[in-house]
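A reminder from the course coordinator: this example appears on the midterm review sheet, so study it carefully.

Given structure:
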């Protein structure tokens, strides 16, 4: 091994400063970075000036945001520093940075061979503090509020109770209660028992309501048969004008749980209830109801699980179709965006710059933005997601493909061109054989990206499981959201394995 290659090559020595050290320091005090520029460290001066101006602009913006309603400069600054003490620390760091820039200009102008690097660590520290303040980072809130999020996160991490459901059946039984009891009118009889149906009766079947003065109502003993065992039964009332309500007793709604035979017995006090004046009569018939939501039959996949399966399949095909269309359109564009193939004439060079410019513009717009535009054009659904990902895939793949073409060995191209081959023949026989492995690699990589992105564009209506996930999160249905998250994670893991196998075979 050549030991010379391991030796450090010294950087090019700067020319002597145009101004003396003290003047460079004064100039950097007036305009940060100017002293460095005149000391022949032009790039350093430009970086320091642009960074310092950016920092001052960000500081002014944050101070103004902290006191939106104030108009006087002094009042704005005072209020901002009072509300956000971190601005005090940041201001001290900016002042230290300013003094350091002045000192840096003096050192560089005095000794052309010295280039202090500590200044740039100070710049990074100031920008870090700005990022901390702009990002409103609050570790204390993160730690103290983590317990509040624990129940929701637990439901997301283990949502499988929601993935299974049982067929449900509403069981209802009713008994008539007369209010009040009268000597002239006998109380309603017990309801007729029907074999196999829930049966519900009360003793007695008449009584007095609880009064506003605190006089207790009649105590009723209610019994039930043929209900589902070990499943809660809600006890409700329906007044003579059709209003249904649940009764509270000792602060809790009246409920009961049948035993293993489906039977129960419970005592309740007749509730307090006002009726409108027009409902004036000697007595009224109230309905006392026992309602039970019972599960019957075998376990089956829940509706949420079925929707998640349907939408994850849709998500996979959104990514697949977008990748397919992206490949078809990116392949021809990539040859026009390769400089080594398009440098033959001014016309081809112009085409090269045009294609490159369009690709850069399209690629700079995120798929989420393209999804919003596609939703406006074709409406909600997976087609909008396919359009959005296809547009972005064309630009991204064309760029990657073109860079692969630009990095190929020029020898075969020159040999083919020496035989008098035209542009198309050169591409077919000298370029394509060299670019197949990187093209396959980039295509698989883009397919992986499209699968991941297809879960995100659903949040803006682009179809797929992301659309469901957004709805469930808005409804605080964390169990259903957890099912979607699990499907996304498993799908991405499987596709990552598949893409690795394909890459191993073809690349």
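Designed residues:
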């Amino acid at each position: 091994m050549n030991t010379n290659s391991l030796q450090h090559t010294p950087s090019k020595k700067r020319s002597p400063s145009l101004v003396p050290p003290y003047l460079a320091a004064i100039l950097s005090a007036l305009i940060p970075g100017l002293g460095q520029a005149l000391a022949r460290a032009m790039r350093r001066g430009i970086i320091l000036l642009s960074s310092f101006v950016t920092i001052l602009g960000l500081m002014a913006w944050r101070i103004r945001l902290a006191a939106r309603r104030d108009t006087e400069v002094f009042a704005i600054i005072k209020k901002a520093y009072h509300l956000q003490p971190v601005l005090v620390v940041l201001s001290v760091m900016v002042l230290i940075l300013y003094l350091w820039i002045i000192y840096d200009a003096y050192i560089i102008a005095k000794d052309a061979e010295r280039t202090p690097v500590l200044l740039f660590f100070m710049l990074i520290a100031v920008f870090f503090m700005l990022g901390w303040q702009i990002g409103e980072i609050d570790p204390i809130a993160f730690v103290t509020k983590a317990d509040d999020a624990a129940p929701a996160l637990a439901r997301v991490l283990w949502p499988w109770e929601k993935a299974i459901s049982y067929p449900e059946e509403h069981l209802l039984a009713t008994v008539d209660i007369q209010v009040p009891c009268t000597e002239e009118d006998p109380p309603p009889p017990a309801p007729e028992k029907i074999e196999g149906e829930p049966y519900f009766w009360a003793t007695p079947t008449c009584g007095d309501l609880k009064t506003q003065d605190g006089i207790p109502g009649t105590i009723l003993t209610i019994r039930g048969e043929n209900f589902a065992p070990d499943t809660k039964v809600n006890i409700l009332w329906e007044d003579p004008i059709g209003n249904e309500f649940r009764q509270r007793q000792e602060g809790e709604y009246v409920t009961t749980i049948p035993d293993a035979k489906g039977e129960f017995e419970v005592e309740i006090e007749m509730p307090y209830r006002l009726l409108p004046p027009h409902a004036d009569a000697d007595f009224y018939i109230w309905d006392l109801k026992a309602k039970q939501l019972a599960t019957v039959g075998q376990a089956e996949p829940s509706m949420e699980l079925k929707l998640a399966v349907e939408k994850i399949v849709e998500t996979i095909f959104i990514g697949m179709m977008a990748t397919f269309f992206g490949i078809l359109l990116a392949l021809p564009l990539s040859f026009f965006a390769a400089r080594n193939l398009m440098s033959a004439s001014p016309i081809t060079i112009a085409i090269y710059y045009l294609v490159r410019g369009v690709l850069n513009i399209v690629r700079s717009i995120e798929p989420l933005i393209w999804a919003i535009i596609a939703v406006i054009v074709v409406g909600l659904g997976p087609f909008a997601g396919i359009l959005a990902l296809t547009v972005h895939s064309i630009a991204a793949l064309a760029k990657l493909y073109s860079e692969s073409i630009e990095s190929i060995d020029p020898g075969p191209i020159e040999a083919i061109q020496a035989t008098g081959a035209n542009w198309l023949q050169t591409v077919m026989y000298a370029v394509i054989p060299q670019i197949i492995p990187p093209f396959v690699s980039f295509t698989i990589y883009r397919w992986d990206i499209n699968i991941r992105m297809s879960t995100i564009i659903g949040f803006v209506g682009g179809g797929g499981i992301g659309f469901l996930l957004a709805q469930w999160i808005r409804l605080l249905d964390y169990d259903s959201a957890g099912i979607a998250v699990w499907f996304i994670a498993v799908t991405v893991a499987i596709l990552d394995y598949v893409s690795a196998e394909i890459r191993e075979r073809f690349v």
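The chain has 16 helices and twelve strands. Confidence is low (pLDDT under 50) at residues 1-11.
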